Amino acid sequence: MRKRLPDAIGASLAIVVCWGCSGNSNEVNPNAGGDSSIGGAATGGVSTVGSSVIGGASAGGGAPSTGGVAATGGVVSTGGRAATGGSSASGGGPATGGRLATGGSSATGGNHSTGGFFATGGTPATGGMPATGGTKAAGGAQTTGGSATYSPCPTNGDACKILPLGDSITWGAGYEGGYRIELFTKAVNAQQKITFTGSLSNGPTTVANTTFPQKNEGHNGWTITQDTGQIPSPALDTGSGGVPHIILVHLGTNDIGQGATASTMTDRLGTLIDKLVNAAPNALIVVAKITPLKNTSYNSTATSYNAAIPGAVQTRATAGKHVIVADMNTGFTSAMLSSDGVHPNQSGYNYMGDQWYSLVSNVLSK
């Protein structure tokens, strides 16, 4: 069955962290004895792509004016031109409120940031419905490029393959399986078929009375560049599940811990997105703003980085790529962080799983 994507598009990929993960020289180490990555999320949900209403109804008077018959002598009288008024119907602008949440950090375990939803409540952009007397608003679907028929997941009953890509937060440091557990639970309860892909495996064997797919690509302590090196192999190899239908990205926390600037991180993220698009051109790529951090100095860089993510995503979305933003910061409280101040605790991971699900639920297989 084909589903419609949320209207707000062009805003979301993710970053992973591993603070406190032993034995990894690439991890951030804010606490003695353990690596830690950091991250932040800037305000801003996602940018709506192509959501303007196209072709509103013609203004009254569009019919030729009377008197358009030939005048005496066979000359056509003036006034036979169409009346003006054929402008686009109002209300077709992008949805409001699509700003990304501030703060974003990535917990050890490489989870995607929480809060991945579209502009204001995830509802369609104002005017996203057909304008009165006009045609359906362009970009009525959640995908970039505005295709109302875009459906990344199989329609033949097969499970939708999701690649969780990131660092220790994606892995689920402190709570094996991380946000993937809640995301899988939501899908199972809705009788939707999903599976996870990737070259790594961890997590429980059973979730919601169903065998839990443990694969993922959440590397403890890895930076954006390191995860980029996993694309297309081994992350998209046949043994890892092959080319996914949906890719969830939460990365950047470890880059911050290693002293990278927001500008450098944004460039790295752009390279990653482009590589993912080339490797999986039909996949829906959801890029997240990283979850909040308790460390104030880290959050300063994270905030700037998160603020730049929508622009990086919008550039690709405008080019017709299926890329959107997930806001994993808004609503993510300090109570959802573990004692290391970087990785989510179980409630934080559950929150992230809920946010991912809110973004992709409309396109998942039944």
What brief labels describe this structure?
two-stranded antiparallel ribbon; alpha/beta; single chain; 366 residues; 7-stranded mixed β-sheet; disordered N terminus; Rossmann fold
Concise synopsis of the structure shown:
Helices cover 23% and strands 11% of the residues. The chain is α/β, with parallel strands linked by helices. The longest helix is centred in the last third of the chain and has 23 residues, at 296-318.
Task: Characterise the protein shown here.
It is a single chain. About 25% of the residues lie in helices and about 10% in strands. The chain is α/β, with parallel strands linked by helices and about 375 residues long. It has a domain at about 140-365: Rossmann fold (3-Layer(aba) Sandwich), CATH 3.40.50.
Any idea of the CATH class of the domain at 142-363? Answer: Alpha Beta
The CATH architecture name of the domain at 142-363 reads 3-Layer(aba) Sandwich
Total strands = 11
Structural class: alpha/beta
**Share of helix, binned:** 10-25%
